Structure prediction request, 68 residues.
Amino acid sequence: MDEKTGEVLGRVVVTQRVGWCADLVSTMARSLISEHWNTSDVGMLASGEDAEGRALPSNAWMALRRLG
Prediction:
């Protein structure tokens, strides 16, 4: 349903909007991965230490958060 008009959307419109959203998320994810999943960044993560030499947290999401 269109939020502004309240009109029920047809299959074609919903398919187009889902495709647009999927393309947007895919582009954002590709950009993020290409910026951060490189040899240098993965090597830093694998070292177990941050840039200041402190041990990284055992939870992966916290370690990635600390590394920025």
